[in-house]
Every structure is written in structure tokens, then in C-alpha cells.
Write a structure and sequence with these properties.
The chain is mostly helical and 132 residues long. It has 2 domains: 75 residues, Winged helix-like DNA-binding domain superfamily/Winged helix DNA-binding domain (Arc Repressor Mutant, subunit A); 32 residues, no CATH class. It has 6 helices and 2 strands. It has a two-stranded antiparallel ribbon with strand order 1-2. It is elongated.
Length: 132
């Protein structure tokens, strides 16, 4: 996956931007056109212009590249410049550093307490730590 532009580092996505990025990440061609993205939405679909505006914003933020393809006329093809996993790592690192003083232990403690994990889930977490 291509490296994101400098201006996109440490930026987070809004809920609407995240939805579009999820659609792009899930597309077989590694991205798509505005119409391709619109087809991913459940009914009622957002307006074409709204979706195009969000894709433009994602391009300006450096999360997405807009490319014209041969024979496609004015139509742009949008592809993610960051993988879902890389974005997840970036966000979780920001959360860890911003809310948990950089401590993974504090994050785990928070989720154990807040999510009221079952005994089986706790055992699974312990097994994961032993196997890592």
C-alpha cells in the first residue's frame, strides 16, 4: 500500500469519511468511482454531490488518490492511500497516547472493566498473551 502524504499523518476520519473509506477498502478493484461508492450505501443513498465532496475531502487530506483512467472520460477512480490496518494502528496509537498515557496495560484494563468481559473472553485474552 502506498505511503500517505505528510499532511494526512495523525489525522482522523469523521464518521462519514470512515464509512466511505470502508467501502473503498472493501472494493475488489482496490477503490472505485463515486457511483461505485454510492452503490455500497443502503437505501436511501446520499446525493451524488455529497459523496463526491467527501471523496474530494479525503483526497485533500491525503487518505485517497483520485486518478483518471484511460477511456473513462471525466470520471475519477478513487483508491485508498492507507490500508485499513495502517489506519487502525494510527488511531489506536493516538488513543493510547492521548487517553492512556501511552500504556497498553491501561487500555486493556479499561476494556476489561468497561466491557464487562465474560470469563471465556478473559481466558481467550490470557491465551493470546501467552502465545504472543
Amino acid at each position: 500500500m502506498a505511503v500517505m502524504k505528510k499532511n494526512s499523518e495523525n489525522k482522523t476520519l469523521t464518521k462519514a469519511e470512515m464509512e466511505i473509506m470502508n467501502y473503498l477498502w472493501n472494493m475488489e478493484e482496490g477503490g472505485g468511482t463515486v457511483r461505485d461508492v454510492l452503490e455500497c450505501y443502503p437505501d436511501p443513498h446520499p446525493a451524488y454531490t455529497t459523496t463526491a465532496t467527501f471523496l474530494k475531502i479525503l483526497t485533500q487530506k491525503g487518505f485517497v488518490a483520485a486518478e483518471k483512467r484511460d477511456g473513462e472520460g471525466k470520471t475519477f477512480f478513487f483508491r485508498p492511500l492507507i490500508s485499513r490496518d495502517d489506519y487502525r494502528r494510527q488511531v489506536m496509537s493516538d488513543v493510547k497516547n492521548s487517553f492512556f498515557d501511552g500504556s497498553v496495560k491501561s487500555i486493556v484494563r479499561f476494556f476489561v472493566q468497561e466491557e464487562k468481559l465474560s470469563e471465556d473472553e478473559l481466558k481467550e485474552l490470557l491465551a493470546m498473551t501467552r502465545n504472543h
